[in-house]
């Protein structure tokens, strides 16, 4: 494919791509146009020039506007997604090039997709799409709704699978989407908390804790959860540690809790270094999840206590973990 348009000038390449974009309006030949356009775009480097980038944007908009993607075959849907991937990821086209319709346009073509190969490709488009084009809460809600319905991933490759898509690939891709933008963070946190509070299988709760940890890592404990959210997460993690009968769930809950405490301590340290900055001071106040932020020493002590409990060979380690958490919770109330 890279040699397909070798020797052509940027103007000639742009003309060809624009021709394909115009023909997307001709429904009887959409499949052939998608195949040809995909091969042509694959042969073009992102630095080919402004004319070519504009033609790629026109192709992407044509897919959004004129192609009923979910009515196509698997391979043709893939060609449509590949054109969008080229515009959003490879060419990294800005909103000025793709217009205000990019997020909702993508929502429209992805809605209803079920093939794991296409889902993996769609999941790879969403984080850069959100980073560059997501600016309104209404668009954020629409985007979240179109990918969050796949959580948790329950895909199992068929016997003798030759495609190579695994559940872990899809799980990691979806996790990136759930933590892709601050405008979807609150919805992602609510989703994860709901799964933790339910009687869903252990893998679902493991995935939910991964979402919570990813949100905190990406946006800080302060911004991703706030006071109310941290209290709820703390309570839910405590329940997983004390009440779950699954060792893996207990271990993941301890790991997630240590991770959140470490991040909260780091946020407070950063706030102490910039005490004169009102914004940083406000972040430090929420970092522990309470009206008055616990001191850094609390976060450090909490990590050590939980780590020591986890490493203990004592047969009553479960009870010790519960006692440790009770002490930590009591410490929080004392700080308050």
Could you characterize what this model shows?
- With 336 residues, the protein is an all-alpha fold.
- Helix 3 (50-66) crosses helix 4 and helix 10 packs across helix 11 (202-243).
- The termini are far apart.
- It has 15 helices and no strands.
**Please, how many helices?**
15
Quick one: biggest sheet? none
The coarse overall form would be: elongated
Order of helices and strands: HHHHHHHHHHHHHHH
Structural class: mainly alpha
Helix-residue proportion: over 70%
Index terms:
15 helices, 0% strand, elongated
State the gist of this model.
This protein has 336 residues and is mainly alpha-helical.
Question: What is the strand and helix layout of this fold?
Answer:
Layout: H1 10-23, H2 30-42, H3 50-66, H4 74-90, H5 95-98, H6 102-110, H7 116-133, H8 137-148, H9 167-178, H10 182-197, H11 202-243, H12 247-273, H13 278-287, H14 296-311, H15 317-335
């Amino acid at each position: 494919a890279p040699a397909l348009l070798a020797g052509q000038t940027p103007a000639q390449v742009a003309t060809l791509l624009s021709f394909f974009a115009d023909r997307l309006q001709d429904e009887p030949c959409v499949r052939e146009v998608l195949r040809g356009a995909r091969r042509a775009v694959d042969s073009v480097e992102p630095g080919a020039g402004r004319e070519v980038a504009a033609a790629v944007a026109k192709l992407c908009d044509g897919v959004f506007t004129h192609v009923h993607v979910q009515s196509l075959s698997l391979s043709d849907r893939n060609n449509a997604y590949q054109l969008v991937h080229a515009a959003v990821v490879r060419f990294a086209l800005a909103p000025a090039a793709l217009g205000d319709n990019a997020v909702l346009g993508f929502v429209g073509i992805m809605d209803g997709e079920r093939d794991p190969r296409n889902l993996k490709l769609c999941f790879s488009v969403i984080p850069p799409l959100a980073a560059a084009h997501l600016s309104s809460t209404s668009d954020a809600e629409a985007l979240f709704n179109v990918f969050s319905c796949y959580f948790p991933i329950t895909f199992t490759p068929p016997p003798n699978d030759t495609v190579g898509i695994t559940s872990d690939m899809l799980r990691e891709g979806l996790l990136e989407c759930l933590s892709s933008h601050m405008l979807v963070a609150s919805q992602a946190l609510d989703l994860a908390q709901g799964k933790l509070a339910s009687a869903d299988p252990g893998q679902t709760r493991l995935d939910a804790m991964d979402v919570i940890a990813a949100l905190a890592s990406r946006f800080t404990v302060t911004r991703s959860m706030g006071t109310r959210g941290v209290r709820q997460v703390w309570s839910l993690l405590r329940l997983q540690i004390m009440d779950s009968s699954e060792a893996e769930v207990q271990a993941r809950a301890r790991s997630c809790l240590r991770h959140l405490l470490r991040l909260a301590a780091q946020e407070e340290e950063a706030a102490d270094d910039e005490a004169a900055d009102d914004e940083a001071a406000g972040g430090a106040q929420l970092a522990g999840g309470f009206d008055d932020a616990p001191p850094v020493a609390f976060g450090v002590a909490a990590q050590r206590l939980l780590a020591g409990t986890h490493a203990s060979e004592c047969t009553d380690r479960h009870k010790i973990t519960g006692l440790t958490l009770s002490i930590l919770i009591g410490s929080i109330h004392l700080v308050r």
